[in-house]
Amino acid sequence: MMETSTLLRTPLHAAHEALQARIVPFAGYEMPVSYAGLTEEHQAVRSRAGMFDVSHMAEFELHGPDACALIQWITTNNAAALADGQVQYSCMPNGEGGIVDDLLVYRFHAERWMLVVNASNHEKDWNWILEQVERNPWDVQIFDRSSDWALIAVQGPEAAGLVAGLCDAPSPEGLAYYTFREGTVAGVPAILSATGYTGAGGLELYVPAQDAEHVWNALLALDIPPCGLGARDTLRLEAGFCLYGNDIDDTTSPIAAGLGWITRFNKDFIDRERFEAEKAIGSPQVLRGFKMLERGIPRQGYPIVDEAGNVIGRVTSGTMSPTLGYGIAMGYVDAAHAGLGNQVGIQVRQRSLAAEVVKPGFLPKKG
């Protein structure tokens, strides 16, 4: 674990300390893991609204006539299908059948795009993209804007309505899922994006770093409770969203990870032929969801076993679902045992506890 003195801080660090948040190291930053408590924060987002500081995420802007061509080559999804003001979930293959990172792709216009990547992969992603540019004669400029932006995710069924009172017209309540617009929040220039990582609906607000605390305090004044990384993790797991470093990484393919829906073979991209072949023959192991049928909490790294006790996979993410009241997990399992509805065992403290194989995503998602 890194020493605290080596960790970075977001523009909202002082606000977290003032609210007596529990701070932990995460992705090279000092980040709030909880305020009032994980369960309370989780339920606030599911029932009404909550907000998260996710300013540790990294933002790269791409400018120039070949910006889309670069994105098409380095990502699996079809960025050419985006219109101005639309967002796309995608991933970057690493040329060896794994994933450099998953990311969001924003199209402002034909010659201005933004990529939002994971904080833990900031430097790796930046270097990877530059390496691809050096190999190809694209007319594109790339800018690391990560230190310019703060990012506040306001999530929950009432989030957009609450934020609307701080915004100029048109209301962000009218934003379709995975679209965005530029406007103001609490008088501050912002990008308002109908995206998030909770499955509960809401907005993500990109604001200038120097104005982050002003916007944060305006949201607090609306009685939107601050939430930490703990609740963000249980919310995303209930929604079935992958976490880089757990459910996907440099060794997992998007096909095995159930991300075939963002892997488009109607264009050329890194690892296209490899993934197309894998899709045709099937992956030896695939990512599935698991619903515990016995009392127990599945955790990352726990073995998944068959009836005879043979190891057939491993848990990559797991928790006790605050909403459902039972253990849930995601993990990779041998394809022969991956049929939905199959029963497997998850070894919890040397005991094999029954679990049902399900699709990742344990609650209906709200846009």
Structural account:
With 367 residues, the protein is of the alpha+beta class. It has three domains: 4-57 and 147-239, 2-Layer Sandwich (Gyrase A, domain 2), CATH 3.30.1360; 58-144, Alpha-Beta Plaits (2-Layer Sandwich); 284-358, Elongation Factor Tu (Ef-tu), domain 3, CATH 2.40.30. It has eight helices and 20 strands. The chain has helices spanning 13-18, 38-47, 67-74, 122-135, 159-164, 212-220, 229-239, 272-281, and strands at 8-9, 22-26, 29-34, 50-53, 58-63, 86-93, 99-109, 112-117, 141-144, 149-155, 180-185, 188-193, 202-208, 226-227, 285-292, 303-305, 311-320, 327-334, 343-348, 351-358. A six-stranded mixed β-sheet has the order 11-12-13-10-4-14. The longest helix is centred in the middle third of the chain and has 14 residues, at 122-135. The radius of gyration is 21 Å and the shape is globular.
Question: For this structure, what is the CATH class of the largest domain?
Answer: Alpha Beta
Mass-distribution shape = globular
Percent strand equals 25-35%
State the end-to-end CA separation: 36 Å
Number of strands: 20
What's the CATH topology label of the largest domain?
Answer: Gyrase A, domain 2
If you average the pLDDT, what whole number results?
A: 96
* H/E element order: EHEEHEEHEEEHEEHEEEHEHHEEEEEE
**SSE-based structural type:** alpha+beta
Rg value:
21 Å
Range of helix content: 10-25%
Number of helices: 8
Count structural domains: 3
Please identify which CATH superfamily of the largest domain we are dealing with.
Probable tRNA modification gtpase trme, domain 1
